[in-house]
Amino acid sequence: MAAGNPYEALGVARGASDDEIRTAYRKLAKRYHPDLNPGDRKAEERFKAISAAHELISDPDKRARFDRGEIDADGQERQERPSYRRHAEGAEGGKYTNVSPEDFGDVFSDFFAGGGGGAGRRTRGRDMQYTLPIDFLEAVRGGTRRLDLPDKRTLDVKIPAGIEDGQVMRLGGQGAPGRNGGPAGDALIEISVTPHPFFRREGADIHVEVPITVSEAVLGARISVPTSTGAVMMSIPKRSDTGTRLRLRGRGIAVAGRPPGDQYVTLKLVLGHVDEGLEDYLRRNAPATAVDPRQAMTEAT
Question: What's the topology of domain 200-287?
């Protein structure tokens, strides 16, 4: 059975750009993904329709062929059955000229090809598209996740270390089965990385804000800093301002074949508990000629 109109399934116009199609698909796929709607048959069917529609019109060649009416919404050839009259008359329009009984046999054989009696063409199965949500640290470190497919199959997906949000993995032969002995399609797994509450990624580097106390900022200290592979000790220089950025070499993201990135630590001064003694000291000793930390901002405006 043919699927519905792929443009309507994604909620885009027929002339939509590639970016508009991609954005619409990602929005709907995340909304109706079976992992996020366990036991919801309607969401599962909608996800199948969305995936099939995106697989068709995200491919420029398939999209053009669908728009011309050469393939249907399932990506299958529209069989245009040859006309008996066209075969009989021939290319030059000579009506029934030089047509032997054997030719008539060929005509009727062609006419009924693709119907109930023919073996049909070997057709490759459709590629199936899925979205796999993973957390930030899993994307950095890599691992294996089990993906439950709408057809009740499961796939163990090996996630390479350093994979990025929106990246698509292709699993050969794990898509829809072929027809008439044709090969199966592929499974296209789009990775959706959940943001981390502390870490932020920029390329191969990781950024994190780390709070420090007044005494650590003024006197310097050795503090424990979280990284994607566990906590490490880092030295805080004396008289560090809030916003000071320090680097931990090689503590970023390691992607196969590339040197690992770094982790950048931005210091954030937190007052915490301030006792009356410190307040009295600041009142008595704050110099009248203290440096204005906002002077540069004032001059710029």
Answer: HSP40/DNAj peptide-binding domain (2.60.260)
